[in-house]
Structures are given as structure tokens and as C-alpha cells.
């Protein structure tokens, strides 16, 4: 016997030792702390102990950091970084994202499902212990077991809580976050390799929707799909939980009540399906409507200047209001579907519980249900509610994720740009019997479209560009010069033949490209020039000097560190071209491809760039291929000439046999020197003043009472607010009545349940109506203001910020603000009820309740501070990802020739890691606060039970207290998390409210006479113009007079103030002194709309709208086809009817126009804008370099057209770099440094040998100009 006891004792000791060692093992870290090469700590999860991992204590350090300013979170662990995630690649069109993700991450999913099963079992352990506890209190002989069941309740709740939050952490850290990172990278990787089909009219619809669709994939579809992969286990978990709830219900109420509940549950599922189906259809329509709105808004924001030039604010406001109303109707349907789901979520568990309770009480003797069944039933109701409510949500998420997956699969399966370039063994760039066309888009567009709209193509090309020399490509406007250059870059479809180019390292074409409309990054000017290359100071300075950028740097507020905005929006057209050229020169590419880069430069700067950059030391030994119309300047220094003839045949020949005079090489007159200390000080003050000007038009984004007041005012004012608050209180009172009547009176319980449902319906409808009113009113307000903002605001505000207000922030206002606010208010009322129950139960429980509230508030404060930091980091990194994506997609035809794709991929990896870091810490802190709240609630429940047992509280009172205390953790966490979400959403609402209160241009003034201007006379008196009172004047005390019907040219070097003068004539910049009179009326006294709608203006960089040629010529569809065709014919764009199906490069009224007119050349866009003004018969026409990108023949045609305009009495004001455009005009105004230096007839100015004479002598057309001026002088 002693031997057996010894063995038993020995086994017990071994068991205790094993348990002790196991527990001790959980206190040792798995590895030492890890740091990045720069000494920054790496995420500590894998370096922490098992105890810290499961208790989430390992994140306390990061939580403490997040509460500080300028917090820098720990770096991602190696295994969670974007670079270590495999790139998603769908091998074939039959491959699916589901299959790929499941195959790659099946271990994570298996872990989720295993933990899910354990949690499902543990979920009902605590209610079971409560049942046993209350039963032991009801029976005197079992009271000694009460303490055991109380401890078991606490232990089971702790186990269930730890397993639950471990599962939730895994679902995001190992599934949701890394899968989204993979999806973003896959979409970006694909976008950099897709065909750039925006230049072909056959794919207008593709190009029209490509960018917004990709943006939606990035911002919406990746989120939804990754979310479902994270919560995929919830559906089987909910079904299992529902099954276990049924078993537990059988234990509480017997088979009759359980059968009734099962029958009602089965009857609910058809309704569940209908609810899910209805919400899914509503969401699908909403997605389509939002895509349409984003396309329209994006197009409007990129064309804001054009809209202002032509006083099109009202029609565009109406157009935006129409697409917005379509979206709001879909939002309303989603609200209705969501409300039905919300009501059903409340009603379905109440129906199940009511059926079970009524059946049981009708069969139970005395009609009462025991206390030991009632309060566990109260605890079971949330599980029923969660299961029945979550199942349709998860099914909807699955259907949404399936739709998201299909959209992403369609994008990832799009056709990529195939390599059409072959390595050149000789190092020469050669075309061998090549036939080329613009990229046709992916195969999904269908062959029928290709047959319906013939692609523009060039055939039979045989060219041999000499190595290390300059070659010139010449031809009429729209003949295909850009297509030929695109083929040399590999950015076209090769239909036949072969193209050979020199390769770097035998793999990558060594080509630098400068497009006709330069692509620049939203970065500093220096970063744009370096373009990822290391800085070599001497070479960098040499490039700046060659591109004449030193004077521009002196004028910029931060020199070459100035942020130039997306596409270089803060630079002039000429500056953008020279920065893009500097990027090409700084690169080491042996081949430079240049598309008409001299068209945007004035004569003096163009000559400097040509002689110092294109034919200077930096280009020595480099092959240069340049499309240009300026043959007089370029041809003498070119060794090869490519001509595209009128019949679209192409010939190439050397220039040795051509008799050409070499033009004089002139230097730019401004030698740049480093700024002195005084100059830097002045520049700094100017920059600060500019910053203040930009800040005047924005409001702080704090979620203060002003934002709430503005929002509720838009939602319906005081009446809406009072009804809203009354509905919140009524809902909670009805809920309390329902809980209190479940045992005393089943009929009252049924009535109060019905009242809860009705109040939920009414409150949701009222809330939805107010939300729609606020959404409609605020969007209308921001639309009206943004369309009418001053020019300085448009130039200083990034397009991305404006787009965010109209998309992400507006979506928050539409969907989340009021619903999240209602959720927070509900939680506050519930917490008050729970606290009241704790205070009511006993004076001892009152102390415990107050202590718990204090601890919860302290934890909540830490969480909210950290969450705010994380939310800001996430918003910032998301904006950076979108900025890089939109910039890269628009510049893919420049990035690929530079061989910079991999560098942009690496940059995206870094930005995705920053987003993953923010998202990881968001869920880390979210799980931490939830775990703390749950453990505090368990402590609260156990404490309430212990106090009740010590002071012998009645079982009914104790059960009532335990039922409410068990809901404390969920309510408190929902409140804390809801307040964090509300702060984020109100941040979006704050941005919308700020935009709705912007100060627009002054829209007041007098109505202009009906026929004004009738003559076209114009006078300026002492005109001084500045873009802001705090900035230096752009025009200084100028005066001039223009007679009715005169043709006046405005000339001068870059920065002279030519464009500023044209803007002043339209009041796009307001004068600080002086006045402008048109037909005797001071333009500052009349309404802006009247002024701009009656003066025609064509800018240097015209913007076209998506649609057709007809819709671009006639916005309101008021004119006949004959009138429109005549305008097209006058500018040389109308195709002959018998040549419609032939390759002509011309257009019909039904020819499609892509967004921005990207399927037309720059010159063709200018001509179409000129045709637009010819059909409206304005008395005053202003052209700002409107023919800079057309060939000389087309320019002569335009001159003839303009001469006809003078004959019918129109006054023409033309800004021109190309002097041959204005040399035959009635009068010239020569500007320099914002002042008029000469004014008079061209022939008279030429004879004076002043500034105009100097411009003529520096021009490549000086022989033509001299002959023309001599002829005009002799004819007078």
C-alpha cells in the first residue's frame, strides 16, 4: 500500500513539475530583440514571451509610443514585409484569386478554423456556469457549490476571451493585412506593365474608365476582399454557435421551447436570404454609381481652369449634381436595405426567444420560468442575435468579396505591353519594314470595336537613325509623329516588321523620353531631375544651365527643393518641358526621344536649350530623335531627316546634300548665381506669405462642435436633432422594458419586443433621411465653391486633396458619420444602464462598479490617443500610395523607356509597408483594448457574483446583475472603438465642411447689357496685377488701347507677363490698381459669368472632355451639324465624307474623345479648341499660345482663318512665341518684366531696332519675318 502511495506521490510531483516548467517556459522570450540596420526596433511579437503574446502585453511599448507626437512605430518583421510576400500571378484566365490565396495561406486558415472550433465550445461555458450557479442558489442543499461555479464561470470566460482575441489578431496579422498588401502590389505591378491605350480612339471607353477603376480596386476592392479572407471563419462559427445555442436552449427550456425556436429560426432563413440579396443588389448599383461619379469629378477637377475660362461652372455643377443624385438614390436604396437588415437583426432573435418563452410558459405549470433559466436566457440572447444577425452579413461579405475578386481578376488578366523591340547589334535604332499602330487595349474590348473604328497606323517604315547624332521627325499636325516615337520606345503595337534598338546590359532599352505633355512626379524639382540617380553636383549644375533653369530656380520659393505638384501643376508649360528635358539629360541613356519640346518655349529660351542642351556637351555621342515643326532651327544641326508625308508614307534621308544655313548660337541673358543671405531672407518671407494665402482657404480638421453643428444643420437643423435624440432615448427605454418583462408577463414581453422593432424602424428611417439631406447639401456646397475658387487656390491645392474631399470624405459623410454617432450614443446609454444596475444591486457592488468605470476610462483614453496617431498614419500612407499609383499610371509611357519600373515597384513596397505598419498597429491596439475591457468585465462579473454570495443577495437580483455585467465588456469596447471611428469619420466630415465654407471669387456685380460687347474695344489704364496682395506684381502700371476689330499680338520672353495679361482680361487675377474697360464698361463692375461667357479664350494647354467631337464643340447641343462641321473645316480637322474609312488623322463629329483629349495630338487639341470658339461668334477672342504645337502649314491656315475673323469685326488678342503667327497683325505689344517696352505696328517696331527687332533676329524664322515685315512696310 505504501509502495502505491509512493508511486502516486511520485507521479503527482512529476505532473506538478511538468506544469511548472510549462508555465515557466511561457515566461521566456522566443528570441532576442531585433533591430533594423539604422538601430530602429523591429516589431516585438516574435521576440516576446508566450504569456505576453496571448495577453497582448507585448504591444504596450508601441501603445506608449503611439501616444506621443511624431511617433515612429516599430518596423515590420521580415516575414510580414511586402517584399517577402510572393507576387500574385494568375497563370491563366481560368485561375482565381480564391484558389491562389487559399493555396498559399492554407496553414493560416487551418489555424483560424481550429481556434474557431475551440472558441465555439468555450462560448457557452460561461452561460452554463451561470445556470449552475443560479440553480445552486435556488436549492439550499447545493449552495456550497455556488463558489465553485462562480470560479468556473470566471475561468471559462478568461479562456474564451484569450482564444477569441488570439483568433481575431491572427485573422488580421496573418491574413487580412498581408493579403491586402499582396493585392495592392499585384495591381500596381500590373498597371506598370499594361498597354497604355489612352492614345487610341478605339479604346476611349477603356481609357475613360481605366484610372478610376484601378483606383477603386486599390481603395475598395482590396479592402473588401482581404476583409473577408480575414473573417472567413465567422460563417461556420456562427452556424456552429447557432447549433450550440439550440442545445443550450434545450437545456434551459426543454424540447417544446427549443422546437418552437427551431421552427421560427428555419422560417427566418428565407427572409435572411431576401435581405442579403436585396442589400447586395443595392451595393452593386451603388458601386457602379460611385464609379461614374468619380470619373466625372476627376475629369472636372483636372479641367477646372478650362471650366473657368469658358464660364462653364453652372453646366458642370448641374452635371455633377446629376451624377451625385444618381449616387444618392443608390445610397438611399442601400439605407433601406441596411435598415431592413438592422431591424431584422433585432427582430429575428426576439422572434426566436418569444416563440421559445411563450411556448414554455404556456406549458409550464404556473406560467413562470425559473430564475436559473431566465437570466442565462438573457445572456444567450446576444449570442442568438449575433449569430442570426452576422450570418446574413457574412454571406453578403462573401458575395461582395466574390464580386471584388472577379473585378481584380479581370484587371490582372488584362493584356500587357509586349516587347516589340529587338536588340541592335550595331547600336543603331532601326525600323525594318515596320507597320505600327497605337495600342488597341486588351482583348476583352472585342474585335467588333476594332472593326467599327479603324485604328490609326503607319506602314512600310524603313528608317536608320545614325548613332550619336540628331535626327528630326517632321510632318503635318496629326500625321503620326508621336506614334513613330512611341514605337521607338516600345509603346506601340508592332503589326509587321522589326524594330531594333540599342540595349543596356543586353536587356533594357537605354532610352530617355520627353513627351509633348511632360510627365512629372509630385515631388521636388530636384527629385524629378535626378529620377532615382545619385546626385553628381557638377553634372547636375551643368544640366540646370543647359536647360536654362537657373533663373526659374531663383524665382521659385525653395529653389530646386520646391514641390512642383502632380504633373508639375505649379510650373508653367515651358518650365515643365525643361524639367522633363533635364531629367533626360541627367540620365545616362544613350538614346533621347523628344516629342516637340520646343513648341512650349519662347524663341530665346528655345535657342538656348537647342544649342546648350540638345547639341551641347551633355548630348555629345547620344542619339537624339526629335519631332518638331521648327525645322529652321533644328535642321542645320541634324544629320537625319524623317518626313511623314500627306499620304502617310515615311521617308528618311541624311541632311548632307541639303543646303541649310546654320543659325546663330545665342546665350540666355540671365547668369544664375547663388542667392545672397538677403535674397534668401526675402524669398523665405515670400514663401511664408504664399503659405498664409493658401491657408486662408481651408479650415482646421478638428472634430469640434462647429463641425457637428454644421453637419446637423445640413441634416435638418433643430427639428431633426430633437427627434433624433428622442429616438435614441426611446429605443433604450423600450429595450429595458423588454428585458424586465421577460419573466413577469410574456404578453408584455411580446408587446415591448414589437415596440423595439417599430422604434428601430422609425429611428433608422429618420436617421437615413437626415444623412441623405446632409450628404446632398454638403456635396452641393463643396461643388459650387470648388468650381468658383480663385486661380491661386487652384494652383496651390493638390488635385489629390480635392479628389479626397469628393470621394473618400464624401463617402464617410454618406455612410458612416450618423450611423457611427448613433452607435456611440447607444453604447453610452447602455453603459449608463449597466452602471445603474451595479449601483442598484448593493452598496458594495457600487464601489466595484465605480472602480471598474475608472479603470476602463483610463484604458480607453490610452487607446483613443494611440488610435488617433494610427489613423493619421494610415490616412497619410494611403494618400501616398494613391499619389504614387495615379502618378505612375499616368506616366507609364515615360517610366518604362527609362527602365525605372523596378525602382517604382521598390518605392511602392516601402509605402505598402508603411500602410501595413499602420494597419497592424491599429488592430494591435484594437485587440489590446478589447482584451483589457473583456478581462475587466470578467473581473466585474466575478466580483459581482462574489459580493452577492457573501451578502446573500436573492438569486433573481444576482442573476439580473450578472446578465447586465456580462454585456459590459462588449458595450464598453464598442463605445471606445466607436469613438475612435467617429473621430476618423468626423475628420472626413470636417474636410467636407471646410470645403463648403471656402471663400470663392466675388460673384456679384452688374448684369452686362444683352449685346455687350458690341464693338470689341478694349482699354487698360495703369493696370497693376498680382496673384495676391502679398506677392510681387506680375504686371506693373501698363496702359494700352485696342480698337474694335483689330488683331493684336502680345510677345516677349518667358516671364514677361504675357499670360498674366490675358488672365487679367478675364478677371482670373484681380488688379491691384488701374482698370480694364471693354466697350466703355469697367469689367470689375460686371458679373464674372457675364464677362467670361462673352470673351472666347484658348489656353496653351487645352483640356478636352470625354465624349465626342460634337459634345466638345457644343456643350448644350443647340447648334446644327452644318455649323459644327464648318468650324472643323476652318481649322483643318474635318475629314472628307468619302475618306471616313481611310487613314486620315482627321475627325467627324461622332469621333470619340477620351478624357483630357489624350487620343489627339497636342496640336489637334489646340485646333479643336479654336474651332469651339469660332462657332459662338464672340466679339473678343484671346489665344494664349493656341497654335504652338501645329506645323507651319496649319499655322498659315489658322492665319487665314483669323484674318477672316477680323473681316467680320472680331477683336483678336494673341500671345505667341512663334513670331510668324503675329507678324502680320495690326499691332504688337512687347512685354518685359511686367511692363510694356514697345507697342505699335510690327513694321514700325522692326525699324526701331529695339526689343521686337532683337526677338526677330533671334528667331529661326528671321528670313521669313524680315521678308514679311519688309513687304508690309512697303505696302503702307
The CATH superfamily of the domain at 421-439 and 456-659 bears the name: P-loop containing nucleotide triphosphate hydrolases
The fold-level CATH name of the domain at 421-439 and 456-659 is Rossmann fold
Q: Which CATH C-level class of the domain at 421-439 and 456-659 is it?
A: Alpha Beta
Q: Kindly report how far apart the N and C termini lie.
A: 140 Å
Structure description:
It is a single chain. This protein is of the alpha/beta class. Among the domains are: 1-75, no CATH class; 421-439 and 456-659, Rossmann fold (3-Layer(aba) Sandwich), CATH 3.40.50; 1018-1027 and 1034-1104 and 1160-1272, Rossmann fold (3-Layer(aba) Sandwich), CATH 3.40.50.300. Helix content is 60%, strand content 10%. It contains 41 helices and 24 strands. It has a six-stranded mixed β-sheet, with helices on both faces. It has a six-stranded mixed β-sheet with strand order 18-21-22-15-23-24, with helices on both faces. A four-stranded mixed β-sheet has the order 1-5-2-3, with helices on one face. A hairpin with a 2-residue loop joins strand 23 (1227-1232) and strand 24. Helix 27 runs antiparallel to helix 32 and helix 30 runs antiparallel to helix 31. The termini are far apart. Mean pLDDT is 77; it is low at 200-212, 443-453 and 662-703.
Key traits:
41 helices; 1276 residues; Rossmann fold; 10% strand; six-stranded mixed β-sheet; alpha/beta
SSE topology sketch:
Blueprint: H1 2-25, H2 50-55, H3 60-66, H4 97-104, H5 106-123, H6 125-138, H7 146-191, H8 204-230, H9 234-302, H10 304-309, H11 313-363, H12 371-412, E1 421-423, E2 429-437, H13 447-452, E3 457-465, E4 470-475, H14 481-489, E5 493-501, E6 503-504, E7 508-509, E8 511-514, H15 525-530, H16 537-546, H17 550-555, H18 573-586, E9 591-595, H19 603-614, E10 623-627, H20 631-634, E11 640-644, E12 650-654, H21 677-696, H22 705-715, H23 717-740, H24 746-786, H25 791-796, H26 799-815, H27 817-841, H28 843-890, H29 892-898, H30 901-950, H31 955-965, H32 968-996, E13 1018-1025, E14 1035-1042, E15 1047-1052, H33 1058-1065, E16 1071-1078, E17 1081-1082, H34 1088-1093, E18 1095-1098, E19 1107-1108, H35 1109-1113, H36 1121-1130, E20 1152-1153, H37 1162-1174, E21 1180-1184, H38 1192-1207, E22 1211-1215, E23 1227-1232, E24 1235-1240, H39 1242-1248, H40 1251-1258, H41 1262-1274
Parallel strand pairs: 1-5, 4-10, 4-11, 8-9, 9-10, 15-22, 15-23, 18-21, 21-22
Antiparallel strand pairs: 2-3, 2-5, 6-7, 11-12, 13-14, 13-16, 16-17, 19-20, 23-24
Helix pairs in contact: 3-28, 5-7, 5-9, 6-7, 6-12, 6-31, 7-8, 7-30, 8-9, 8-12, 8-28, 9-11, 9-12, 9-26, 11-12, 11-24, 12-31, 22-23, 22-24, 22-32, 23-24, 23-27, 24-26, 24-32, 26-32, 27-28, 27-31, 27-32, 28-30, 28-32, 30-31, 30-32, 36-37, 39-40, 39-41
